[in-house]
Amino acid sequence: MAKAKKSKLKIIPLGGVDGIGRNITVFECGEDIIVVDCGISFAEVDTPGIDFVIPDISYLEGCMEKVRGIFITHGHEDHIGAIPFFLKRINVPVYATRLTLGILENKLIEHNMRDVCELVEVAAGDVVEDGNFAVEFIHVNHSIADSCALHIYTPAGNALVTGDFKIDLTPIDGETMDLARFAEIGSEGLDVLLCDSTNVERVGFTQSEKIVGAFLERIMFNTDKRIIIATFSSNVHRVQQIIDASAKFGRKVVITGRSMLNVINAASRLGYMTIPEGILIEVGDMKRYNMDQITIITTGSQGEPMSALYRMAYGEHAQIKLGKDDLVVLSSSPIPGNEKLICNITNELLKRGATVLNDDAVSDVHVSGHASREELKIMHRLTQPEYFIPIHGEYKHLIRHMELAKELGMDEENIFIPEQGHIIELSPSGMKKRGNVPNGVLYVDGAGFGDLGSGVLKERMKLSEDGVVIITVTLDSEFNSILSGPETISRGFAYVGEAEEITEQLNGLAAEVIEKCLDKGYCDFSTIKSKIRGEISGFIFKQTKRRPMVIPIIMSVAL
Amino acid sequence: MAKAKKSKLKIIPLGGVDGIGRNITVFECGEDIIVVDCGISFAEVDTPGIDFVIPDISYLEGCMEKVRGIFITHGHEDHIGAIPFFLKRINVPVYATRLTLGILENKLIEHNMRDVCELVEVAAGDVVEDGNFAVEFIHVNHSIADSCALHIYTPAGNALVTGDFKIDLTPIDGETMDLARFAEIGSEGLDVLLCDSTNVERVGFTQSEKIVGAFLERIMFNTDKRIIIATFSSNVHRVQQIIDASAKFGRKVVITGRSMLNVINAASRLGYMTIPEGILIEVGDMKRYNMDQITIITTGSQGEPMSALYRMAYGEHAQIKLGKDDLVVLSSSPIPGNEKLICNITNELLKRGATVLNDDAVSDVHVSGHASREELKIMHRLTQPEYFIPIHGEYKHLIRHMELAKELGMDEENIFIPEQGHIIELSPSGMKKRGNVPNGVLYVDGAGFGDLGSGVLKERMKLSEDGVVIITVTLDSEFNSILSGPETISRGFAYVGEAEEITEQLNGLAAEVIEKCLDKGYCDFSTIKSKIRGEISGFIFKQTKRRPMVIPIIMSVAL
What we know:
The structure is a homodimer of 559-residue chains.
Chain A: E1 9-15, E2 24-29, E3 32-36, E4 41-42, E5 52-55, H1 58-61, E6 67-71, H2 77-80, H3 83-89, E7 94-96, H4 98-110, E8 119-121, E9 127-130, E10 133-139, E11 148-154, E12 157-161, H5 179-188, E13 190-196, H6 210-222, E14 226-230, H7 236-248, E15 252-256, H8 258-269, E16 294-298, H9 308-313, E17 326-330, H10 339-351, E18 355-357, H11 373-383, E19 385-391, H12 395-407, E20 422-427, E21 430-436, E22 441-445, E23 448-450, H13 455-466, E24 468-476, E25 482-491, H14 498-519, H15 525-544, E26 549-557
Parallel strand pairs in A: 3-6, 6-7, 7-8, 12-13, 13-19, 14-16, 14-17, 15-16, 17-18, 24-26
Antiparallel strand pairs in A: 1-2, 1-20, 2-3, 4-5, 5-22, 9-10, 10-11, 11-12, 20-21, 22-23, 24-25
Helix pairs in contact in A: 4-8, 5-11, 6-7, 14-15
């Protein structure tokens, strides 16, 4: 394609560039906008009680009429999880491959939105044209089937978004990612590469998914125990390998965990899995088989509380009781932050007498779905971009990816470390950073979602540190005297035995403070509250070296 | 020594066997008890606001007159941190090597206890005899100098506690652990081995501390940046290597962070560090040197909030501002649970333009202080114990260590996986588990410590999940009518914009509930409170799918 570059292409990451997850990138050219992916991220230590986090798309809401569609690379939560929230505000067509749409469809049904959304199925190799954009889907390997990179072609130039990928030279479905097409794009001339940075800290080459299957077969050959394998439900190739190995060694397969059942149903219905006739049995039928004739595939590989594996580990699973005749395989690696949960679940499984295999130096029970350094180098060499934007990672990953590109000979000036909301503009005069658009995050907690940012989350953190002390008092409405109280109530604050004594002291101190206020003729709630808060906080800190949240409540009664 | 075995030796772990930290093991023989180590462990996700955790020693308090002394293997917090709390309850002599005592002494001074405690200095090779016990200190390598294993000899048999150790064949102080003595003990006959399990999941052999020095020299040779190195203050050999490398390359050294200053002072005063004349400078004098003439040694390698490195990373350090002429070395590996903190601090440092080196596959900036599998095998082979008790680790580590011992030919019946409070008894008829002693943990939070176990911590967790909703109302003392309120106050609960609306609704609902109670003639606080709590919780969950803690407060005024 000859390039008659005119106009400008703006690339705006609204997420996915300052931490793992919440991937969403906006491409804007003339009067048209397309959005690539729209995922969630998970709660962290400093966001207690949050279910998950979604990108703030108010920038797009401000120019809604320009938005042509969402183009999805693959069906993981960090790429599709926020789409229902997006479509509620901006209802545009969604373009994706079949399995990705299958997973998204389940999600939309849960939100009662299936009927009002337009889902457009594409296949790797297809090109979708819309306004100034032509978007080509290119097959890549990843830990979920049907993953694609997107080649985005515009009058202002072209961009390649790799999505999450690895180069698997012996993939389960026989389809190595389309290296030839990446090379072709490179030869034709690529303006901007946006590339996955997740595994940039790993040296070498990520191992093929196939080695997990080989290892599982070795285990099944060597053990007469029942085998319980926990993995991500979305990794249909992993699940396929577990089923294939079980079939080979005459094991029946039990599926447990809601999301595992959902994905296996969707994947086999859509033709992404082949399940041998009669191999699946119900959990209740396990008793008709010997232990060495059973494989259980389950959710919970991240130690998630109340997942099927968690309930088995803590002896709370109604139908599956584990013991010394069980071999548990954690076919996954910890998502950062989940290390301790996984350690706890491993301890519990071992305490029940089960054998446990983790992903470690001697057990090939898991491989990553992301490209390691040598694969990233291949991607850069094949596509030969003029400009480079590392995406998908913590800030440190983006920096390491920049260093990798520089090692390959790229000029630092041609590399853009993106921050959320940056406008990176490609024009005939080159690529430049041009200001910011509104951006941020929204917290989803229960039925509500919105801006908990500053206030509510800080309050929760503070409450969790040292608890809360509430001082209530009723005054007459003329501020002459105390009618009732002060009464102190605390939660999460004082130790057993300590509480009663300190409560008495606080009641006495609060009474003194209030009497003094009334004597001085203070007659507004806020002054009295602030005096109480100050004195009580000070006293508590002196006595206990703790800083609970202190809440004074004053009521008044007209006599 | 000829063994005339009589009586019994009880081995009772009161900590250190169900998670990393809080190491303490009791040895009881006849009328004598000795205690090996007495450490703390750190707060976890489910113990918010806790400073640290100490072992419950009520078993020992019940037989205080038998306790002869505490014998310490080395000066890390997880082995000495709870000694002040122990000595406040049971004041017995403490036996340890010089550096260990130096660090403990600082701690006792902070607790105003130095004068009332008896600290007895021993050297590797010394034997302390007391009642039925003879305790020999044997030099081992570890990430703190002056570490020892303890050989405990009693009429009922002998036990070897390795303490934390690694086998460093090129140690910084020239003293490889006393392998010959371990072999001798094995030849003479060892009844029980209690061995460190921390690194049992690591294959191979832990690298020598020396490689870190070599790597630091390579960095200093190649960079003209200022170098900031964060490490554990107690690792005096690491700090010595940083100072030596700096001296070699003409760099002055700035020490920052309170614990770093304390330890370097103690270590050099006691002869464990050699600091070249004039190499240390004050932070204020840095401006007189070029960037490539300065090394800063700091605390904060675990990303601890408010540590010196944390303040530098977030631009809050009064005297040290980092930028693109700085190279930060995180000379440590994450303690499980700290991964995210370290990731965050790395991101911040990179955002300031600094270069950051972490412990990864290509940077030898850190080595572990614990024995990997091949070293553990050497320990087992040298000491040839009849019985084996794996200690120091998560349950999973103890199990893996048992498996390792079995690989070496040990009979599973001779291996005891200890749990906290187990009595493991060695007698002429062999080793057996014999019941339990009282055991548990105490939480230290601010000035207080005690049993927060069930109530307070659960309240904190609940508060952090969805916050708190407080409903206050004042009634007349005859329960005829509402005099004031109900008033709803929430913290950590509702979103911006959402709060006002729901507060109004809750006030209305609470008023209805209370009026209904009064109409029905309910006139006790607890019934009315429980009605309010039930209705309000139900309403909130229906509206928001959240479950905040609901606290009704009723005051009454006599009219």
